[in-house]
Sequence to fold (321 residues):
Amino acid sequence: MTPATTAAASGGAPAPAFRHELYPYQGENAFLAGATSFIEDALGADETVLVAVGPDKQVILRDALDATRADGQVRFVDTAALGRNPGRLIPAWQDWIAKTVSQGQPVRGISESPWATATAAERGELRYHEWLLNRTFAESPAWWLLCPYDTSTVEAAVLDSARRCHPFQLAEGLHGDNPAFADEPFLFDELTAPCDPQETLTYGAGALAAVRGKVTACATVHGLKGARLQELLVAVTEVASNSIRHGGGRGTLQTWVEGDVLICQFHDAGHIRDPLVGRSRPEPHQSGGRGLWLVHQLCDLVQIRSTAEHGATVRLSTALR
Fold:
């Protein structure tokens, strides 16, 4: 059963080209049963599968699969290479889908996010990533993504959010529609309050050096230096420049350390409308929109909250170790 030929429950209409499917399971054996069945079905249909799961799950899947049969059609990727920033995941999937489809191969994927080890802030961005997938691939070539969630470890609120943003589900061995799916606006987690922030800096045109100086002072005190500091300075310059160009000509910056993370938070009067801003690779001919893309590549986490009423807040997190 391929995503291109699966029929929706209502009226037999064709399903969307992108089949985003939730797989709630409990324990390693259940994960293995669902994942191997999904992969074996793909191999039987001569489809290529990309598996993006943690290293422990990779080991048990490799052991369970027929290596000769799966060779060349099942590819494993270590998502740790992308860092912990969920904002880097969508372009990684886009690149792989484009490459595989160009070779004339039907595509499936398995993606399990690191819910057990993610911080609260990272979990919020992972939830947003799942919601964005439906919009990102609404007009893509046909492909099928299975998203396993271990119900024994994932928080109930995370699982509830997942049920609401996956149009399909694998339940009791059957692939079908997900009755809990709701095509509705995403509700962000509120940003946590600043933790003893240093004095707020108000900046405008001609003040980018002051922005970099404030970040450097905070970073240096806490041991962030060298290449990592230089990357952060590029990122903060991009965000502050956006405030000056698009956020009313000025903004504010706060910096603080929370645990082992340096946080730089910017606020201005702008309104960022594009839900995929910074999460989709800019086209070569594109005249703008590269700044927040670059910021996502340079920071360990990027959180954006923006409304017409309250302006835009961009929070950058950089691990100190």
Remarks:
- Residues 1-12 have pLDDT under 50 and may be disordered.
- Residues 201-319 form a domain with the Heat Shock Protein 90 fold (CATH 3.30.565.10).
